[in-house]
Amino acid sequence: MSKPNNPADDWKIWLVVNPATWLMPIFYALLVLAIAVHAVVFAVGLGWQ
Fold first, then answer.
1. In this predicted model, which residue has the larger pLDDT, 1 or 43?
2. Where are the chain's structural domains?
3. Per-residue pLDDT tens for 5-47?
4. How far is 20 from 30, CA to CA, in rounded Å?
5. What is the model's pLDDT at position 9?
């Protein structure tokens, strides 16, 4: 295996890491996490007064 010639070969990472596969699931997971954090913050009384 030849050593990558960066940055000329940087585009090749998208052949392995396809945003169409992982981008939306990560966004949905972040949305669920943000809602959970807000729910906890408001439950302990640190929300808006």
1. 43
2. 17-44
3. 888 888 888 788 888 888 999 999 999 999 999 999 999 999 8
4. 17
5. 82
CA–CA–CA angle 5, 11, 8 (5° rounding): 30
Alpha-carbon distance of 23 to 29, in angstroms, equals 10
| Backbone Cα Rg of the chain | 20
In 1-49, which residue ranges form alpha helices assigned H by DSSP? 13-16, 19-43
* Matching residue, tokens 């990472």: 13
Which two three-digit tokens encode residue 38? 């807000």
Measured distance CA(42)–CA(37) in Å, rounded: 9
Q: Torsion angle, CA of 13/15/17/19, rounded to 10 degrees?
A: 120
